Amino acid sequence: MGRVKLSFWGLLALLTVLWLSADASVLQWTGYFPFRSSMVQYSGVIAIGCMSVAMILALRPRWPETWFGGLDKMYRLHKWLGIGALVFAIAHWLWAQGTKWAVGWGWLDRPRRGPRAPLENPVAQSLMDLRGTAEAIGEWAFYAALVLISLALIKRVPYRLFFKMHRLLAITYLVLVFHTVVLTDFAYWTAPIGWLLGVLLAGGTWAAVVALLGRIGADRRVSGTIGVLHHYPALRVIEAEIDVPQGWPGHKAGQFAFATSDAAEGAHPYTIASAWNEAEHRITFVIKALGDHTRRLRERLRIGQAVTVEGPYGCFTFDDDCPRQIWVGGGIGVTPFIARMKYLAMQHGRPPQTIHFFHTTRDYDEDAIAKLTTDATAAGVSLHILIDGRDGRLTGERIRAAVPDWRNAAIWFCGPTGFGQALRQDFAAQGLQVEQRFHQELFEMR
């Protein structure tokens, strides 16, 4: 999370510093209306800057994934940028509209202006002629963005609607690009703030076009068919094995992919629960019925059905140099550990570290637990099963009691976010260097 916060606040700081270098007059009070004009510009620059970077990250680019520590972290930044864009867009709208209301209510006197002389620069004059249009459509684009971003942040909105709304945001963004180009102070374009803004607008525009064409992640998609389906009723889980005869580059245990079985529903992310075997070319997903879409999969999926798989993504790949590893899988968070155990079993030797795997679950299925036990034995992993109703909650204290040498271990956690945060805080309080040794998958893509 450190790099996510650094990137978010760093972007805001960079835009602010560059804006101040181009409009330092705001530091000297010359009256309300000049100050208001500067604030309109500043809030607009920050809002469109955040939205532009969010659009670029929506393309799921490969180059920053390793630095951020996985696509899940990039999507967390994408979410923060969306919230930041919304906050500054509201501020931008209030500075623009609030002053007009205050003048209309008699609270402020509008300064008298004479007729504006034609501008010598033909480009500046052309942009000036478009101001009225840019202001009108920009206001409506703001209302659309306000609704679309707000709805995207509401988890109860079905994924199908969320998927479609994000397509509409791309159109809204393109309108706001026009609004920005026309209404940004013309002097900014010859200053560093204008150069950076131009790069961000160009990148965001490209991302919006790619999104509208449905080409996000197109170069990482492969076609597959469902070869095996197995249902675990007690767990409300489906295990689907997808045959990908060609094109899949292989994956590391712990990575995830986007799978599309219904074009109208769009791609959903699932952790891969299998090690890659060049002889089989098969990917396994273990999917729990947690939402509208996943609850319907049992009725909709069938053997031989075509599926599109995109990936792999993620950096939850168990790479560290500690002599011990402690794995914690809560509920469906067991899936990356299944993949890792299958990988270790394929190596036909002892694992590189001593590994203790704690799997805590509310539901119990004898068949699933038997498979998990078999995988752990084959991989040389010490398995600890905790059933909530029988064994109580898993805590840091229970882990430390079971693994006396925990100070020399790295912890790999996948499960409910709150559970992970509680364990992280607990181990941090006991002196573990959690920034380097506590690895948590933030598996929330919206």
- The secondary-structure class comes to alpha/beta
Mean pLDDT: 90
First-residue to last-residue Cα separation:
16 Å
Shape: elongated
Q: Count every helix, treating DSSP H or I runs of 4 or more residues as helices.
A: 15
What is the succession of H and E elements? HHHHHHHHEEEEEHEEHEHEHHEHHE
- How many beta-strand elements? 11
The portion of residues forming beta strands comes to 15-25%
Strand order of the largest sheet: 4-3-6-1-2-5
What is the helical fraction, as a range of percent?
A: 40-55%
What is the makeup of the main sheet? 6 strands, antiparallel
Structural commentary:
With 446 residues, the chain is α/β, with parallel strands linked by helices. Helix content is 50%, strand content 16%. It has 15 helices and 11 strands. It has helices at 2-22, 32-57, 65-68, 71-104, 122-129, 131-152, 159-183, 192-212, 292-300, 335-346, 366-379, 388-391, 396-402, 417-429, 434-437, and strands at residues 221-232, 237-243, 256-260, 268-271, 282-288, 306-313, 324-330, 354-361, 382-387, 409-414, 438-440. The strands form 2 sheets. A 6-stranded antiparallel sheet has the order 4-3-6-1-2-5, with helices on one face. Strands 9-8-7-10-11 form a 5-stranded parallel sheet, sandwiched between helices. A hairpin with a 7-residue loop joins strand 3 and strand 4 (268-271). Helix 2 (32-57) crosses helix 7. The longest helix is centred in the first third of the chain and has 34 residues, at 71-104. It is elongated, with a radius of gyration of 26 Å. The model has no long low-confidence stretch (mean pLDDT 90).
